[in-house]
Write a structure and sequence with these properties.
It is found in: Mitochondrion outer membrane. With 615 residues, the protein is mainly alpha-helical. 75% of the residues lie in helices and 0% in strands. The chain has 32 helices and no strands. The protein binds 2-acetamido-2-deoxy-beta-D-glucopyranose (NAG) (6 copies). The site of one 2-acetamido-2-deoxy-beta-D-glucopyranose has 2 residues, from loops.
């Protein structure tokens, strides 16, 4: 899991509740509603064919029927009680010396093929299916589809992937809504590592099965994760380093209470610095000034100026390295960040405080790169250098939150607050960690006490946005939406430039009223306020998937991908994007009307939310 600020991570936690299990496939529930209502296929149902055919042709089913179908789809293909029946009938027919119709003859061959398949004689099975296909009149498309599909199953056992694909394709030409043929072809594509074709086919399977088959869904999820991982590996290499938004950086900087880089320079230092330059600020002084004025783009070049100046001129080399390393880290330039931070850490002459902060920042870099042990080791080193550093404990707490080690996080928050009792962020985040622990324990008394702690926090730190926003999240979580909304309103008034507050409020609107328009408008507002708000793009994209605005969703996910700060994040976002693309491809291929899905999707959100809430 990527390093993010707790609020953002917690949003994901909440998102999972609101949007259901965050299966990357993009919320099949809604499609399910739609498709089952639409009655996928009425045309090919009631012919006199074996069960296999009915399953392939019939879309609309009751729950009971669906589960029956599922059981059958797990068995090998087309081998059912009815086959045995047909076999008996065939014998009878032979006895009576009756002339068989070509279709019946073909079916008999198929049944022979099935018998061979069942006995592991795949080559022989294929010969029988050949005959079945040969005999079958071309107008009996549903039957032909089965024969091809069954032959593909035999080829699959022989690992002849190209043959599998060919036969599945032919099967689908005969019956374009035959989930099993899609699924088998998906597996063949996986075997030959054609992952986007594989994804398209498994998505088609999911849709045709109306997301009722866990096997398929789990398979789809795995394929999505794999394509996401592959794309992210490439994406990280091509990634253009980019500073996050001002607001993000402000939040980041505010999360340190004793950072020497943020301390005001003494009057002496300032005059000193100003005097050394003719008319313009230079090097670290310029960087510091830019930081005070939130002109963050200037910081890295200004620090470089300091670092590259000659030894005699450079008084603030370590400071400049630490600051540049910090901003490289924020930009996602991990190699550069590590170089700068290492330089400070390994310089025994550098101020202990600077080295401690370099270690704290390197720790979070390691966590972002999913090197947990190295990250924790850096924190241990800080503890030896500066055991009373309040930021050490606060930052380590946040890492523990990311790692879902809530008890450890709680202890760290407590230490942070003991050293720096006025650290409002640490105080209220501690409340939030306690809340989650209380929830896990199902302890009502404890939850009540924690709500009181939140109220105390607000009284104690009325100027701290996080007190209001976390209070709002907790209230929303308890379905006290009205109150929660008031806290969001206050928080947004205090920090109107804070995009993530708007996103949170939007998510709550979905939870509260299923009000998708309001939610979208808030998320859009978030993007207007901060066009680098990754969370807004991701969340809005997810909502658009539910509304079946898939093209828009893809666009939004791609914007989020550009802003992703770690491979894990990027992997998740690529999986979401790929799922949306596959759904676009499949709905086009199957001719499913998207605008109709969208209406139902809107109704679906409310019911899904309620389902999630009752958990
Ligand atoms: C599908 O069949 C059912 C019953 O056989 C019928 O009520 C329904 O209108 C049909 N739907 C379509 C779209 O033809
Ligand atoms: C969707 O269709 C496009 C264009 O045909 C194709 O490039 C892509 O591989 C397909 N599937 C996925 C998952 O991207
Ligand atoms: C499918 O998975 C869901 C969630 O994991 C579970 O609740 C459900 O019982 C599963 N259904 C079947 C048929 O296995
Ligand atoms: C730094 O200076 C600003 C005003 O210039 C002041 O508001 C702030 O409290 C000072 N911070 C510290 C830590 O002294
Ligand atoms: C913005 O809001 C989030 C909560 O949604 C909070 O965690 C963060 O600290 C806020 N940032 C600022 C600068 O107010
Ligand atoms: C789908 O939507 C279109 C336009 O919104 C409408 O004309 C059509 O009847 C709908 N089809 C179904 C099956 O609901």
């Amino acid at each position: 899991m990527a390093y993010k600020f707790p609020s953002i991570k917690l949003t994901k936690w909440q998102l999972a509740l609101v949007l259901g299990t965050p299966l990357a496939l993009g919320l099949g529930f809604y499609l399910y509603n739609k498709l089952s209502a639409k009655d996928l296929d009425n045309k090919t149902t009631d012919k006199d064919v074996d069960s296999e055919n009915k399953k392939a042709g019939k879309g609309k089913t009751s729950k009971l029927k669906a589960s029956k179908t599922q059981k059958k789809s797990l068995s090998i293909d087309g081998i059912t009680e009815e086959d045995k029946e047909t076999e008996k009938r065939k014998k009878l027919a032979e006895l009576e010396n009756e002339r068989l119709s070509p279709l019946k003859e073909a079916t008999i061959y198929k049944n022979e093929g099935n018998a061979c398949y069942r006995n592991g004689k795949f080559d022989e099975a294929i010969i029988f299916y050949d005959k079945a296909i040969d005999k079958c009149p071309s107008e009996h498309k549903a039957d032909l589809a089965i024969f091809y599909q069954n032959r593909a199953a035999s080829y699959e056992m022989l690992r002849k992937w190209n043959k599998v694909k060919e036969d599945c394709t032919k099967s689908l030409q005969c019956n374009p809504r035959y989930p099993k043929a899609y699924f088998r072809r998906a597996k063949a594509y996986e075997a030959t590592n054609e992952m986007s074709d594989c994804l398209d086919d498994v998505t088609a399977t999911c849709i045709l099965e109306m997301f009722q088959n866990n096997n398929t869904i789990m398979y789809a999820d795995r394929v999505l994760k794999q394509t996401g991982r592959e794309d992210a590996e490439k994406g990280m290499k091509d990634r253009v380093p980019m500073l996050p938004s001002k607001n993000f950086i402000n939040t980041y900087l505010r999360s340190f209470v004793a950072d020497p880089l943020q301390a005001n320079m003494s009057a002496n230092e300032v005059t000193d610095l100003l005097n050394t330059k003719d008319d313009r600020l230079y090097g670290f002084a310029r960087a510091k000034h830019a930081m005070d004025e939130q002109r963050y783009d200037e910081i890295i070049p200004a620090c470089t100026e300091e670092i590259e100046s000659s030894e005699s001129e450079s008084q603030y080399k370590s400071e400049a390295l630490l600051l540049r390393g910090t901003f490289h880290l924020l930009s996602g330039s991990f190699t550069e960040a590590k170089q700068d931070l290492d330089a400070v850490i390994n310089n025994a002459d550098a101020d202990v405080k600077l080295r401690a902060y370099a270690l704290i920042k390197r720790a979070s870099l390691h966590i972002q790169l999913e090197e947990k042990d190295q990250g924790l080791a850096d924190f241990d080193q800080v503890q030896k250098l500066q055991p009373d550093n309040p930021d050490l404990y606060h930052q380590r707490a946040q890492i523990y939150i990311l790692l879902d080690q809530l008890n450890e996080a709680l202890q760290e928050y407590e230490k942070a607050i003991k050293i720096a009792p006025n650290n409002a962020m640490a105080y209220v985040q501690k409340c939030y960690a306690e809340y989650r622990l209380g929830l896990l324990a199902g302890d009502q008394m404890r939850l009540l006490m924690i709500m009181n702690e939140f109220r105390n926090a607000i009284e104690k730190f009325p100027g701290c946005v996080e007190c209001y926003s976390l209070m709002a999240q907790v209230l929303g979580d308890q379905q006290q939406f009205q109150q929660a909304d008031q806290f969001y309103e206050k928080a947004i008034k205090m920090a109107p430039e804070n995009a993530s507050l708007l996103v949170h409020r939007g998510i709550m609107m979905l939870q509260w009223k299923g009000d998708i328009d309001k939610a979208i408008s808030l998320m859009q507002q978030a993007i207007d306020v901060d066009d680098k708000c990754e969370l807004a793009y991701e969340t809005l994209g997810t909502v658009e998937v539910q509304r079946a605005n898939l093209d828009r969703a893809v666009e939004l996910f791609e914007k989020a991908i550009k802003l992703a700060k770690s491979q894990a994040e990027m992997c998740h976002l690529y999986a979401l994007r790929n799922a949306a693309i596959a759904q676009i491809n499949v709905t086009r291929k199957l001719g499913i009307d998207m605008s109709n899905i969208s209406a139902l999707a809107q109704a679906g959100i409310a019911s899904q939310t309620m389902a999630a809430d009752t958990k």
